[in-house]
Design goal:
Chain A: This is DUF2304 domain-containing protein. The complex is a heterodimer of chains A (133) and B (252). Chain A is mainly alpha-helical and 133 residues long. Chain A is built from four helices and no strands. Chain B has nine helices and seven strands, in the order βαβαβαβαβαβααβαα. In chain B, helix 5 runs parallel beside helix 7 and helix 5 packs parallel to helix 8. The chains are: A mainly alpha (133), B alpha/beta (252). Chains A and B meet through helix 4 of A and strand 3 and helix 3 of B.
Chain lengths: 133, 252
């Protein structure tokens, strides 16, 4: 009975954390679906362990726990691959932004060098327009 | 034409290289309309200031992207400012700017889009030894097949890109290890660009010596082959080719 309680607490914590992260927008919605699905699965298996046994017989897995390990391994693998893809995309985006920043900086330098000395020598160029005392 | 000099913490060697380029451009008739831009690749020393002090515009990248990243920024700059050709020249003084007219000549003579300044092609005394040399030979042989011309030095950073190549490389120039050499050649070849090599003399590097250990050579070859296989198996070159053709039609 105590083992069942442990499982329930872990499930509740998992679901609670994911819910909190989603609500506080620390996980973006495009990742939300897979995490919600995972949370639901964890809750189902945690609350009704017989679901696992039923699934194991259905799929022909002799020991239900092995099915759990297999599925969790596959899920982790998928998540890792997805992260690799996302990181690669982010790196490419960062690279493009860095290039644009460098190009813009140079443009800005060019434009600045074309503007005659900012106002200092010419009182009329002051934004206030007030005549010098 | 634009000379792009990717520089990462090269404040010592850079002024000399810039002066040399200027001297060559002043004497050579064919280089009269040549500009220079330094790409400071997230340098932490005074590379950018040193270049500006020499009166050369600087693309100052906020983070280190590697040679490939620095060069793509250079190609974008060239494309946006309407340059016909880009010469990539290292900031460490390894490449002799006096060879730029030879690259340009080869581009005109063969109608080539990419001209490689190659080290082991007869000129100069630069030699890699031992396993590294063997690894480079294997690489050269495979890439000669891919590009349809005889190449002896595929990892040279001394290259000229013609108008079509500038357009292609501004969009696609890999930032990965060996991406600026091996993979970029594959991308160019598969987009239907013409590649040739010209023998050039290289000077010894200021600092740092190439490794001669077999382990390093094996790792180098392994990574190069991996880069090559991935580049060759990529389907995107079809879209690159299509884009180039579309761009050519728009201009025509």
């Amino acid at each position: 009975m105590r083992g069942y309680l442990t499982a329930l607490v872990v499930c509740a914590l998992t679901v609670g954390t994911i819910g909190y992260l989603l609500r506080s927008r620390r996980i973006r919605e495009k990742y939300a679906a897979s995490w919600i699905a995972l949370a639901v699965a964890v809750v189902t298996v945690g609350a009704v362990p017989s679901v696992l046994t039923w699934l194991a017989t259905l799929l022909g897995v002799q020991t239900p726990v092995n099915l759990l390990f297999l599925v969790s391994g596959v899920v982790l693998l998928i998540v890792c691959v997805q992260f690799s893809v996302e990181i690669s995309q982010l790196e490419e985006e960062t690279r493009t932004l860095a290039e644009e920043i460098a190009l813009l900086r140079l443009d800005l330098e060019d434009v600045r060098s074309q503007i005659p000395q900012q106002g200092a020598a010419d009182p009329d160029a002051r934004p206030s327009g007030a005549p010098p005392a | 034409m634009l000379v792009v000099i990717p520089a990462w913490n090269e404040e010592d060697a850079l002024p000399g290289v810039l002066r040399e380029v200027r001297a060559v451009c002043a004497t050579e008739q064919s280089l009269s309309a040549t500009d220079v831009v330094v790409v400071s690749d997230g340098s932490r020393d005074r590379t950018a200031e040193v270049a500006r002090a020499e009166g050369v515009p600087v693309l100052d990248l906020p983070i280190n992207l590697g040679v490939g990243g620095a060069m793509r920024a250079g190609f974008k700059y060239a494309l946006r400012h309407g340059y016909d050709a880009v010469v990539q020249l290292d900031a460490d003084g390894q490449h002799d700017p006096a060879a730029i007219p030879a690259l340009l000549g080869a581009a005109h003579e063969h109608g080539a889009d990419v001209v490689i300044g190659a080290r082991f092609a007869g000129a100069g005394s630069y030699e890699a030894r031992g396993p590294r040399r063997a690894a480079m030979r294997v690489l050269a042989r495979v890439l000669s097949r891919v590009t349809g011309t005889r190449l002896t030095d595929t990892t040279s950073g001394f290259k000229l890109a013609g108008p079509r190549a500038v357009e292609l490389f501004a969009a696609e120039y890999p930032a990965e290890y060996l991406g600026d050499t091996v993979e970029s050649l594959v991308i160019a070849a598969r987009a239907g660009l013409e590649i040739v090599q010209v023998p050039v003399a290289m000077r010894p590097r200021q600092g740092g010596r190439p490794s001669h250990s077999p382990v390093h050579a094996a790792i180098f070859l392994g990574r190069a082959v991996l880069a090559l296989v991935i580049a060759l198996s990529r389907p995107s070159s079809h879209t690159a080719r299509a884009r180039l053709h579309a761009a050519a039609e728009v201009k025509a």
